[in-house]
Write a sequence for this structure.
């Protein structure tokens, strides 16, 4: 499959004490929802902040839409093309909903106030009550703040969304709604819109993920179309008597008194000949955990 890219990065590097983000090559596909997956401290937020233009103290080059680089990102109408949401103090706590609307309108020509208010209602930001423009951001829960951020960014005319952990503060029902909104955003773009989001909630977000990038200790350790990853990695289960032999073959393995379960690289399946094993297509969650486990600095 030939892919176009909305973000192309090379030699991206950011050093901290005891940690270095080091990404020789980064490609975010056009027209797809790409998930950035990794354990805490893997460097996901650092990378998202660099791509969103929040961090400028990094090395390397980043090109957007094959049109402009990271140094030009906020010039002219270029900032209109990308929407961003992230954790932390996205809005000042003393801002009211009216100020959120007014400031968003001043910052972005493509912000639609009516759409923002409609989305706030759709997401039940104020429950069953009317829109209260005098209500301060500080009075909302973390989950509701994320709803407001999502409503705000989806009320803009953009070609790409960068969403840092959008599912984390959301309840299961709202995570399902988030997936629906992501799918709707992409479908409305007819292949011209793209989404790049980071997540810890791999299972909840799997059905909307087209492409996955898995990070560990500041580096990309695996990536690809989800359908391709599910062909590269196979879930196998077998009997206890074969677990020691299987341990030497499988990519990762979990064992108990009754048998073993693990991820096998498809190219190594023949090495399991003679064992009584069953094979299944793994979930993205199972693949992600296996890749992180194989590359983690934690003791195993």
């Amino acid at each position: 499959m030939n892919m176009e890219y909305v973000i192309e990065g090379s030699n991206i590097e950011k050093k901290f004490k005891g940690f270095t983000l080091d990404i020789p090559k980064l490609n975010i596909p056009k027209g797809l929802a790409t998930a950035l997956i990794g354990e805490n401290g893997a460097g996901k937020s650092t990378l998202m902040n660099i791509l969103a233009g929040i961090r400028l103290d990094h090395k390397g080059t980043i090109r957007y839409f094959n049109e402009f680089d990271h140094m030009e990102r906020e010039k002219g109408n270029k900032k209109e093309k990308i929407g961003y949401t992230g954790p932390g103090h996205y809005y000042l706590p003393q801002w009211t909903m009216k100020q959120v609307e007014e400031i968003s309108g001043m910052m972005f020509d493509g912000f639609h106030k009516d759409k923002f208010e409609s989305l706030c209602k759709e997401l039940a930001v104020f429950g069953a009550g009317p829109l209260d423009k005098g209500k301060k951001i500080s009075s909302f829960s973390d989950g509701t703040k994320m709803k407001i951020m999502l409503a705000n960014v989806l009320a803009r005319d953009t070609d790409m969304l960068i969403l840092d952990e959008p599912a984390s503060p959301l309840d299961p029902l709202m995570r399902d709604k988030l997936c629906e909104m992501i799918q709707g955003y992409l479908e409305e773009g007819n292949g011209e819109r793209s989404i790049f989001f980071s997540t810890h909630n791999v299972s909840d977000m799997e059905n909307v993920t087209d492409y996955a990038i898995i990070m560990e200790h500041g580096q990309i350790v695996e990536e690809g179309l989800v359908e391709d990853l599910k062909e590269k990695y196979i879930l196998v289960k077998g009997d206890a008597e074969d677990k020691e032999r299987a341990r030497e073959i499988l990519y990762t393995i979990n064992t108990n008194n009754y048998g073993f379960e693990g991820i096998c690289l498809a190219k190594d399946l023949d090495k399991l000949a003679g064992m009584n094993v069953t094979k299944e297509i793994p979930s993205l969650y199972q693949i992600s955990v296996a890749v992180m486990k194989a590359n983690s600095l934690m003791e195993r």
Notes: Residues 172-188 form the longest helix (17 residues). The domain at 5-90+150-217 is CATH 3.40.50.300 (Rossmann fold). The chain has a mean pLDDT of 91. The two ends are 36 Å apart (CA to CA).
